[in-house]
Design goal:
Layout: H1 9-35, E1 38-40, E2 43-45, E3 51-59, E4 70-76, E5 83-86, E6 88-89, E7 102-106, E8 109-112, E9 114-123, E10 126-136, E11 139-150, E12 154-160, E13 165-176, E14 182-192, E15 198-211, E16 214-218, E17 222-225, E18 230-231, E19 236-245, E20 251-253, E21 256-258, E22 269-280, E23 283-293
Parallel strand pairs: 3-12
Antiparallel strand pairs: 1-2, 3-9, 4-5, 4-10, 6-9, 7-8, 10-11, 13-14, 14-19, 15-16, 15-18, 15-22, 17-19, 20-21, 22-23
Length: about 300
Amino acid sequence: MRRRNYVSSSEKMMTAVLVLIVALGFSGLAYGHWQDTLYFNGTIRTAAGLYQKTFVLTLTCNNPWIGLTYYGAIQPSGGGPWTSVQLALSSGEGSKLPGNEASVSDPDCICRDKVLTGTIADLSGGQYNWRIYTFYDGAQVTVGQGTEQISQDVTNFFTFGVTSLEVSKTVTGVQKMADGRYKLSGTITITNDDEHYAVILLVNDTVQYRAGGTWLSIRPDVFVCTPVSLIAPGATVTLSYYAIFDSSKPSTSEGGFDPLCPPQTQTQYRNLAEVTLFNHPLGIHVFHDTVSFTLPP
C-alpha cells in the first residue's frame, strides 16, 4: 500500500516564510546592484569607484571643418598614454542637447549645428588632462583642452566654432652678434575677437628688406617664439620671440629664390609676423603685421 506524506499547516507556514525570505534576499541583491548604477549628467557611473568621462562637442553650422572626424582623449596628469574615443553623431536624446537646435542664419536657409558625443569608461579617480582633436592634412589639430579632477562621472560640453584675430608686433631690440649675424627680438600680440576658441596652427616670423619696389625675405637661421595653440574667447596673448639672421645671405621673394644678397648699406628693413588661424569662417587664414627697424653699425 502506497504511503502518503501529509504536510501540516505549521510546516506550510514555515515554507511560505522561507520563500518570502529568499524573495526578499533576491530583491535586496537586485536593489543593491542598481544602487551601484547612478545617473549623473547623462552618463552612467560604474561600480568599484570607476568613473566615465563623456565628451559632447558642438560644431557650429558655419564651421568650415564640420565634416572632419573628431576625437576625445584623456591622460593621467602624472603622465602615461592617452586614451582616445572617436566622437559620433548624437541621436535620440542627444538631439536635445544644447547647440543641436536649428538656427536661422539666412532668411532662405536653415543652419543646423552638429553634435558629436563619445565616452571613455573605467577611469580611476584623480587629476586628468583632456583634449578634443581632429586631423587636417595629416597633422593632429587640437581644438579644445584642459585639466580636471575626476571624482565622479563628468560630461564636458565644448563648442567649436569660427572666430577672427587681431595681430600686432613690436621690435624691442636689434643686436649685432660676434659672428656678424643679427639678433632681432620683440613681441607678437594676438587677440581673439569672437566667442569661440581660436585654434592657432602656426606663428612665423620673417625679416625683409626693400629692393626697389619689392620686399625680399631673409630666412632666419633661428626663430624662437612662445608656443601657443589655443586662445580663449575674447582673450589676448603676448608672445615673446627672437630671430637670428645673416644679412649677407641670399634672399627669397614672391617669385622664388633670389641669388642676390641684401646690400650691407641697406637701411629699409622690416619684420613680418604671420599667425595662421585654423577656424576662420573661410577656413585657414593668415593674419599678419609688420614693423620697421634698422641694423646697428
